[in-house]
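Thread: quick sanity check before group meeting

JM: Hey all, I'm pulling together slides for Thursday and realized we never actually wrote out the predicted structure for the chain we discussed last week. Dropping the sequence here so it's in one place. If anyone has concerns about the input, flag it before I start.
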Amino acid sequence: MGGGRPAVEVVRLGLVSYREALRLQQVYVDRHRSGPSHALLLCQHPPVYTTGIRHKPYPPPLLDGLRRLGAEVHNANRGGLITFHGPGQLVCYPVLHLGSFKKSVRWYVSQLEQTTVAACGRLGVAASSSPLTGVWVGENKICAIGIHCGRYVTSHGLALNCNTDMSWFSHIVPCGIVGKGVTSLSAELRRDVGVEEAIPHLLEAFRDQFHCQLMESRD
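JM (edit): ok, ran it. Output follows.
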């Protein structure tokens, strides 16, 4: 890092389809071929269920049932099992070269968890990490984390429930974890907490946790 803090471009995508987000992540991943080009993609998605890498595919009838709810279904090359993304959920895709930070996937996932814990704390929610991936408030998951890392370049990331319609989660076992629930910032604080309110807290926590500089995209 040459003694300085890595520069990370903040790209606000707004509401974009999951397919478009995958395409844009690849664009930013490819930028690293000519040197570090760190970016933090922030977005929301229309209702979509995504499945991660696992040994056996999900039964087609299960996936068809999810589509009949009005959601898209996509397979992704991230870690983790099935989860939901939708409006009211802050999705953050860091596209970083870990060579500028620390070449450890375990460290990176832990940093994402601690970033989210800190962001929740700034909003007044006492969240924590656990042996299970993600960020939790008691027995309820408030933020799912699933990443991909190839040649030390990261993609995918985290999804923080702000004022998400939580009923979408009732149709799946989120992240394949039985016996646990889900929650949101709004549910915990008993007031409406939207994505726009949560973004600055997440950015500040990310900057502090990753010891980087954040720069707003000019695009």
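AS: nice. The mean pLDDT is 94. The longest helix spans residues 105-123.
JM: adding both to the slides.
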